[in-house]
Amino acid sequence: MTDELGKVEKPEAKQYEGKRKLYLVPLIYTYEGAPSDYTEKYELYWTQVQAHIRNLESKMGTVDLVYHESVTIAGDKGLEIMEKLSPLSCKITKERCQSGAKLEVIEDAELTEETMDWERHFMMGFISNKVAKTISELYAEASRRRYEHIANRINETLDQDNAAILFIRENHRVQFPKDIEVFSVAPPALDEINRWLRDRSQQVEQEVPGESTQEETSAEQESARGQTEEETSTEAEPEDKESSKETEKE
Q1: Which among 55, 142, 70 is positioned nearest to 105, based on CA atoms?
Q2: CA dist list (Å): 57 to 5, 60, 192
Q3: What is the mean pLDDT of residues 207-227?
Q4: Is the pLDDT of residue 237 over 80?
Q5: Which of 1, 66, 80, 185 could cross-link with 248 by S-S, CB 3.0 to 4.6 Å?
């Protein structure tokens, strides 16, 4: 049974000394015109993430590296990109960088752009099943190569007895090296956000069918999760669940 990290005492945490540690944070986005109740949950989520990371650092060690999906440039320029992409994860990153951590690039720009382009095709929808199948296969292959690259970069840059944060979408398919201890940061607000998105979808289904309303709700979910529904149904390799050693919850 997975222990809740909030209950792991410092003596028990000694078993992780000398090991490579990865604090895995689901990347949640907001979007223009988001309802106030969603915005409240979004802001609460990142407040809880910050608190949980600090708790991790007090037990497992301070952060040496920060990894962030979709950021292909390191240094101040990378932080500028991150600020536009996800201001609250950027805030956490800046705080760690001011304490000596380094923003490390794990993305390949060409692979990232290719994956995003195929993803946009999914959002357009298809008439032909043949085209849908072809695009699905191309997207799955691009995603596989992208996630493989991310795993390799983490393996190359995360040293022994170091800790890193990885900000990445919840349904990623990165296969982490087996010697890395992965701690999943999953604060209560994450469940609240996912529940809000499910309820929002059900609410639309119960209303009078309308194409514009359905498209609006779909766009909300994609913006919040940073993904399309098709991504969760592609035939890319599933995430290795055994790699998540602990879960950080209150």
Answers
A1: 70
A2: 11, 5, 25
A3: 52
A4: no
A5: 185
